[in-house]
Design goal:
The chain has helices at 22-29, 82-89, 127-130, 140-144, 169-176, 226-229, 234-237, 277-281, and strands spanning 5-8, 12-13, 16-17, 33-36, 41-46, 49-54, 57-64, 68-71, 74-77, 92-94, 97-100, 105-108, 118-122, 138-139, 151-155, 159-160, 163-164, 181-185, 190-195, 198-202, 208-214, 218-221, 224-225, 242-244, 247-250, 255-257, 268-272. The chain contains 8 helices and 27 strands. A 9-stranded antiparallel sheet has the order 4-5-6-7-13-12-11-10-14.
Length: 288
């Protein structure tokens, strides 16, 4: 199958159509690797393609790491034109996956392509599986319209602008919108949400315990812009600090600064709750 994918919404991809049988696939593609799920379901694999069959009928087609697609005769570069594509199609976003119910299509990993992308076309009888959480999702344009250029004034160990330590993820979401990626460290009970220019971290109770803010954002202490001046800020010049890895940490304010406080637009300001103090103090344990 070609690497440029012609998406036929609710029908198939290139020459492979939903509702085909395994014999049909063999005739088009050739020999396939089979993985059984149970007596009614199995997967067939070919290069970067995965075909899901139920009762020997194709119900979904997945492609790993697609780049160029044709959708309704329009060409999209998923890597270089991500924002344009998402804005035009306005998909739902849930659990790291963009859902396009109008096309019976999902794309996972589009915001972090280096970690792998998977595009899937599915039949109508699979909508209840792929779209089961869509009622909890935000659409892309609503995410894009979330408040921007917020002022982040640090109240040590209490809050950062509108965000308060101890908040639940749903409360943070009302301010910041839907995260682009969610990951969980089950061993440590830590959940991390990544958004454009920011990161939120939660403990095992789901409480907000740390924020990371890119220096493109306006982060303040005592109404002075920390994200611009870093450790050269007057309020920090005579304050005691602690060095751990590449971070300069001021426990009085509950902050850690990238690049030993010599901040650039690529660096981050970390603002943490009291329960994170041991992690920032311990030079022998990797920081979360």
């Amino acid at each position: 199958m070609r690497r440029e994918l012609k998406i036929l919404p609710k029908i198939g991809i290139n020459e492979v159509k939903l509702s085909m049988t395994s014999s049909d696939l063999n005739n088009i593609i050739g020999e396939l690797n089979k993985k059984n799920i149970n007596e009614k379901e199995f997967y067939l694999y070919h290069d970067d393609y995965v075909f899901h069959l139920v009762d020997n009928v194709l119900v979904s087609i997945s492609v790993n790491n697609p780049k160029i697609i044709f959708l309704n005769e329009k060409k999209y570069d998923l890597i270089d034109e991500t924002k344009q594509f998402l804005f035009k199609e306005n998909p739902y976003f849930v659990d790291g996956c963009y859902l396009f119910p109008q096309h019976n299509m999902s794309i996972y990993g589009l915001d972090f392509p280096d970690e792998g992308i998977q595009l899937t076309i599915y039949s109508d009888n699979q909508k209840h599986i792929y779209e089961k959480n869509i009622k909890f999702a935000f659409q892309f344009r609503s995410i894009e319209n979330q408040p921007i250029n917020l002022k982040y004034e640090i109240n040590p160990y209490q809050s950062v602008g509108l965000l308060k330590f101890g908040m639940q993820s749903s409360e943070v979401g009302k301010i910041w919108g839907t995260p682009l990626k969610i990951s969980t460290n089950s061993k440590k009970g830590i959940t991390t949400e990544n958004r454009t220019n920011s990161q939120a971290m939660y403990n095992e109770k789901g409480q907000l315990i740390q924020l990371a803010l890119n220096c493109k954002e306006d982060v303040f202490i005592d109404n002075k812009m920390l994200s611009k001046f870093g450790s050269n800020l007057d309020i920090l010049k005579n304050e005691e600090y602690f060095i751990n890895r590449n971070y300069k940490i001021y426990f009085k304010f509950g902050i850690a600064l990238d690049n030993l406080g010599n901040l650039s637009s690529n660096d981050f300001v970390y603002v943490f709750a009291e329960e994170m103090i041991p992690h920032w103090k311990n030079i022998y344990r990797p920081l979360i």
